[in-house]
Amino acid sequence: MAHPLAHPMAKEKTDVLHGSLAFMVLRTLDTLGPQHGWGIARRIEQISGDALELNQGTLYPALLRLQQMGWIASKWGSSENHRRAKFYSITRAGRKQLAAEAENWERISGILARFRSQAGEAS
Amino acid sequence: MTRLRVLLCRLTGWLRKGSLERDLDEELHFHLQLETAENVRKGMTSAQARTSALRRFGGVAQVKETYREAHGLPAIQLLWQDVRFGFRMMRRSPGLSLLVILCLTLGIGANAAVFSWIEGILLRPFPLVAHQERMMAMAGTNRGVAGLDDLSWPDFVDLQKNCTLFDAFIVDRIMGVTLAIGERAQRTTGSVVSANYFRALGVRPVLGRGFEPGEDFGRNAHPVTVIGYRMWQDRFRGDPGIIGKTQMLNGMPHTIVGVAPEGFYGTFVGWAMQFWVPTSMQEQFDPPTYKLGDRGARWIEGFAILKPGVTPAQAQAEISAVAKRLEVDYPATNRGCGIQLFPLWKTPFNNAGALLPTLGIALAVVVSVLLIACANVSNLLLVRAFGRRHEMTVRLAVGAGRGRLLKQLLTEGTILAIISAIGGMAMAHWCRNLLALLLPARAGVTMTLPGELDWRVLALSAGVCLISTLLFGLAPAIQASKIDLVSSLKADSAGVVGGRRRAAARSSLVVVQVALSFVLLVGAALLLESLRGMQNTSPGFSTRGVLTTGIDFRSAGYNAQRIKTFQDELIDRLQGLGGLQSAAFARTTPFSYGSYSSAEIAVDGYETAPDRQLTVEYNEVGPGYLATMGIPVVSGREFTRADNETAPLVAVVNEAMAAQYWRGQDPVGGRLQVKRRWMRVVGVAKMSKYRSLRETPKPFFYVPMRQSALGQALEVRTPLGPETIAKVLAREIHKLDANLAPSEVITMQEQVDRTTAVQRVAVTMLGVFGGLALLLAAIGLYGVMSYTVSQSTRELGLRMALGAGVPHLLRQVMSQGMALTAGGLALGAVASVALTRLIVGMLYGVTPRDPLAFGVAFVAMTMAAGIACFLPAWRAARTDPVRALRD
Question: How far off is chain A from B82, nearest CA to CA, in Å?
Answer without folding.
Answer: 22
